[in-house]
Amino acid sequence: MTSQSKVASPPVAAIRPQSRTVHGVILNDDYAWLRAENWRDVLRDPDTLPTEIRKHIEAENAWCDTLMAPTKILQRELIKEMRGRIKEDDSEPPQPDGPFLYYSRYRRGGEHPLICRKPRANQGSKAGREQVMLDADALAEGKEFFDLGDAEHSPDHRLLAWSADEAGSELFLIRVRDLDTGKDLPDAIADTSGEMIWAADSSAFVYVALDDDHRPTRVLRHRLGTPQSADELLYEETDPGLFADIDQTQSRRFLLISSSDHETSEVSMVDLADEAGKPRLIAPRLAGRQYSVEHHGDELLILTNADGAEDFKIVRAPLADPSPSNWVDLVPHKRGRLILSHICLAGRLIRLEREEGLPRIVIRDLKSGAESSIAFDEEAYGLGVDAGYEFETDTLRFIYASMARPAETYDYDLTTGARTLVKRQEVPSGHDSEAYVVRRIFATAKDGAKVPVSLLHRRDLTLDGSAPCLLYGYGSYGAAMSASFRTRPLSLVDRGFVYAIAHIRGGTDKGWGWYLDGKRQNKPNSFTDFIAAGEMLAAEGFTSRGRIVAEGGSAGGMLMGAVANLAPELFAGIIAEVPFVDVLNTILDESLPLTPMEWPEWGDPIRDVAAFRTILSYSPYDNVKAQTYPPILATGGLADPRVTYWEPAKWVARLRATMTGGGPIMLHTNMDAGHAGAAGRFDSLKETALAYAFAITAAGGGWDKAGEAAAGSS
Q1: How many Å apart are CA 482 and CA 286, to the nearest integer?
Q2: Which of 107, 238, 569, 661 lies in the 20 to 30 Å Cα band around 410?
Q3: Cα–Cα–Cα angle for 583, 63, 48, rounded to 5 degrees
Q4: How far apart are CA 562 and CA 480, in angstroms?
Q5: Mean pLDDT, to the nearest integer, of 205-228?
Q6: Choosing from 554, 604, 619, 672, which is the catalytic residue?
Q7: Please, what is the angle between helix 72-84 and helix 683-699, to 10°?
Q8: Residue range 449-461, pLDDT digits in tens
Q9: Are 692 and 598 in contact (CB under 8 A)?
Q10: Contact 389/102 with Cβ under 8 angstroms?
Q11: Mean pLDDT in the chain?
Q12: 313-319 long-range Cβ contacts below 8 angstroms, 24+ apart
């Protein structure tokens, strides 16, 4: 664990120059030694980290602890506030499936969920007594890290397949529980992605195995009572740039095996009622073509970007021969209306789409073609669909929230259109939505593009430029940032912050074209969009230059590194969580788990000189300059297979060695977790409290005034 001792000065990483020439360019890396040669072993067992590297990482943690020590009281207050907004004995609304209602809940004080069911009410009688099928708190007891992956009951309701990761490395072990006895069967399937799909007769399940390079490449069928070595291989992906995944149709008739990267997909289906069923290919992979599949009767309904449908369309195809030559448009492509997902319920097609940056749900009667929609009249909000387990149903569950309004779960009657509120998110410490203002405004990028910015502030805040601002961004992989309710940022907003989300290019917030304009050769647009958002917030009086704390994680952490290099004077501080900052070295290394799959997103710098030069131009680690930097807090996870621990460690070392002023620069590595940090719902509050205490300190004048800030908050 991290040392708590006071340290007088920051760690100085040894400089051990390494150089190589790529495409005629000499790349120098003074800190490559921080990458352990046995990194694959470290993912499985963090205790195998070489002693010298461990000492350096622990010294960084001790330095971070020293600098943040004046904020310990503030951090405790933040944790108390954030915990006070969590309903400790919360539970999700039960979902019906045959004779039972299935749901998860938490016990008061519990870190992990209880997976539960109870008999379904029948003919006016009350539902029966609850059965706790799995107690994740009990499973996690005594472990430094525990993350419950998936928990899926069998079609005959006798068994529960469940998975867990006990290192943070995303290597999940699958077990099977007998729900009559409460005991686990001898079956134990190691090194999986964590998901499983049951066969229709409950005698077997299908899962995805990870290879030695941590890539999900093999889909296998496990028959209960047999050893893992006897599992039947259904599919193996041999292209290292494509990963295998599994799902099932809402009808539960077909297993779907997909192989995909960030721009190409291929799907095969297996009849789950056929105990010897083999995969049947729907459409062969074609570079740039994506599709996903649903089933209804004797048809497949396919969401795809085929034939130039940039923002996707839905086609229908006969189940007997669903090859692309038989695809017929059902929901045509409409530019600017991005269809995000689709599901089929008996007689109906439901799609979730986004237009003008706002989501809506559209229900289509498959017989008549009539459509109705669910949307809300607010400037910014989030909307999602929970399809549940059943296919033959007239009820659709959806979840709505805005940045100021807690999540509301509704059951929507597909016949009458009536909405029934089944749950409203509780904030035990109290929350008045009317005390806050939600806005969506637009920044003008350097090329004229209009960048949406969602923001939240207290209604009584004076907008004269004096308010600090936390500006969040991501902008990669087509991920859109939902403007939904988050309880944690309220601790900043209630202290006078403006909380803002920049919907920059690289996400799909304004359609698929918005994503394309922020990837590969267009990646720099993500960075300049974020800077434009910050400049606009200052120009409009929501905050001012030098009062903005930027935050982003993973690929959003790369964004943080890039804007720190490009516009350090704009920011009071930067929070870079598990940041992807050593971009060029990582994308040049085919041996790393995710690298080949990443080339469609960033470009292939090994074989493409132009891609190499583009990445070299912005890779945060390679572009650290002799300039003044704002205070920076970087975080990492020792067992992280996505952004390896050495990326933030190398970046921080180079920043300290190169910068001419500013800072401080801090690194905190979770020695017992991976990419997502602490898995427990309360344990994770400690990491947020550290980040928010950093933000408050940075925006409040820096570390010379940290003690005053802490005292002022008590």
Answers
A1: 31
A2: 107
A3: 60
A4: 20
A5: 96
A6: 554
A7: 120
A8: 999 999 999 999 9
A9: no
A10: yes
A11: 94
A12: 313/339, 314/339, 314/342, 314/349, 314/351, 317/282, 319/295
Proportion of the chain above pLDDT 90, given as a percent: 88
Is 298 catalytic? The answer is no
Q: Kindly name the residue from 56, 153, 503, 675 that is annotated as catalytic.
A: 675
In 3D space, the residue among 555, 573, 484, 548 whose CA is nearest the CA of residue 518 turns out to be 555
What DSSP line would sit under 92-153, residue for residue?
PPPEEETTEEEEEE--TT-SSPEEEEEEPP-TTPPP---EEEEEHHHHHTT-S--EEEEEEE
Q: How far apart are CA 191 and CA 253, in angstroms?
A: 27
User: Please, which pLDDT band fits residue 380 given cuts at 50, 70 and 90?
Assistant: confident
What pLDDT was estimated at residue 2?
Answer: 37
> Is-catalytic flag, 554?
yes
Q: Which of 47, 19, 42 is nearest to 32 (CA)?
A: 19
CA distance 195 to 151: 8
Q: State if pTM tops 0.90.
A: yes
Of the listed ranges 502-516, 586-600, 619-633, the one predicted with least confidence: 586-600
The phi, psi pair for 250, rounded to 5°, reads -60, -30
- Element of type H or E holding 3: none
* Partners of 344 in the β-ladder: 349
The answer on pLDDT for 148 being more than 60 is: yes
- Is residue 600 within 8 Å of residue 262, measured between CB atoms? yes
Q: Among residues 30, 640, 668, 672, which one is catalytic?
A: 640
Reply yes or no on whether 640 is catalytic: yes
Q: Give the pair of three-digit tokens for residue 76.
A: 């405790």
Tens-place pLDDT, residues 460-491: 999 999 999 999 999 999 999 999 999 999 99
Instruction: State how far the Cα of 118 lies from the Cα of 144, in Å rounded to an integer.
Output: 32
For the chain, the residue count is 714
